[in-house]
Specification:
340 residues, alpha+beta, 8-stranded antiparallel β-sheet, 3-stranded antiparallel β-sheet, 23% strand, elongated
Length: 340
């Protein structure tokens, strides 16, 4: 049992045994009564990395159907909502948490300030207790196996949409480029005709104005650049989505056989070329790892380099993994940008 001090007085939470999906239910008594569901979940930044914890009031969840349990009540009023603990960051910094999200009652009214503070304290205490369990690695693996099919389904749809959006942006960029070149060529042709034989109609066609040849020759290249930039943005999203899909589709290792996190510091050059300067095993604690990564990233930025966190069995394997990921990313970007 854990004891939680809240603005509404003390709340006690008793955890259940973990179920097959890695979920634990905390039964509340005291100033708040009901059930909090807590489970390992995917990182908000990368869905293939289950280094986050979701705590939900009642059976609320974005990915899974949880057993129907009594909603958490304070003074007879039932509430819904959730929060996510991002383990890559310290719990003491604001970005170490996402939420709480929409703490509302069953009539969709926002929770009063004191109730909101109480619910937030309860959600965070249960999430932290879950993350500190000695069997947390096993619960992560169970949650990953349970949530992967739904996440893959969503990623497949996102990849398809991003591919279509990127192709559309590239087509628009090419169309703007062709139209700009044609407008410029037509303007010069009319200019030569006007020089050889001045005529009011030619002067009208050459004059600047909205949607004139001169105006189109000026703004269409800018539109082409905007469309190319949008295509590059979609390409980066595609790279992330495909990397997440590949990571989720790969069978998860058992907790005792999991690869260790390594910092890989170097310069990621064009064409997938990587100049690796340093490889170091990262701390196991997510908060310490995030703090040290920020320090490395600042030093690397000053030297025009960057830092990647790679999971591998050894420093040599981490360096090779970083090179392989850089090559794969470069090849995917090249294929997308050169697709006819």
């Amino acid at each position: 049992m854990i004891t939680i001090a809240t603005p509404s007085s003390t709340v006690r939470a008793v955890p259940s045994e973990a179920d097959a999906t890695g979920s634990v239910r905390y039964s509340l008594t005291g100033a708040a009564r009901g059930t909090v569901h807590v489970t390992a979940t995917s990182s908000p930044a990368r869905w293939d990395q289950f280094d986050a914890v979701r705590a939900s009031l009642g059976s609320a969840s974005g990915v899974r159907e949880l057993p129907v349990e009594p909603l958490v009540r304070i003074r007879g009023r039932a509430y819904q909502g959730s929060t996510v603990r991002v383990l890559a960051h310290s719990a003491d910094v604001p970005w170490g948490w996402q939420g709480p999200v929409s703490l509302v009652d069953t009539d969709d009214r926002p929770a009063p300030e004191q109730a909101s503070q109480t619910l937030t304290a309860v959600l965070r205490a249960c999430a932290s207790n879950y993350a500190d369990r000695s069997d947390f690695a096993r619960l992560q693996l169970a949650a990953r196996r349970h949530d992967t099919p739904q996440l893959l389904k969503w990623l497949d749809a996102m990849i398809s949409y991003a591919e279509q959006a990127q192709a559309r942006c590239l087509e628009e960029a090419e169309a703007h480029r062709v139209q700009a070149a044609r407008s410029l060529a037509a303007w010069w042709t009319l200019g030569r005709w006007f020089t050889a034989r001045p005529h009011p109609v030619l002067a009208l066609l050459l004059a600047p104005g909205r949607e004139s040849l001169a105006h189109r020759a000026e703004y269409l290249p800018k539109w082409a650049e905007i469309s190319r930039g949008a295509a590059e943005d979609e390409g980066r999203r595609l790279t992330l989505f495909r990397s997440e899909y590949k990571g989720l589709a790969r069978p998860a290792a058992a907790p005792e056989n999991r690869d260790r996190p390594y910092f890989v510091v170097g310069q990621w050059k064009g064409g997938g070329d990587v100049d690796i300067w340093h490889v170091e095993e990262a701390p196991a604690d997510p908060g310490e790892r995030a703090d040290l990564c920020d320090e490395y990233r600042e030093d690397a930025d000053n030297a025009f380099g960057s830092v990647e966190i790679v999971y591998a069995a050894s420093p040599e394997a981490a360096a090779e993994q970083a090179r392989r990921e850089a090559r794969e990313t470069s090849e995917r970007n090249h294929r997308e940008l050169t697709r006819p």
